[in-house]
Amino acid sequence: MRDYLAAGEIPFTVIRDILLQISVYLSGFVSCL
Fold this sequence. Notes:
By secondary structure, the chain is mainly α. It is built from two helices and no strands. The protein is 73% helix and 0% strand.
């Protein structure tokens, strides 16, 4: 994986993947409550 921060740009796909991981983690956490 390349260093996007060093390149000075963060592709939308990377942000989308991070948001998807967070949403999946949150949904799993809520289901455990």
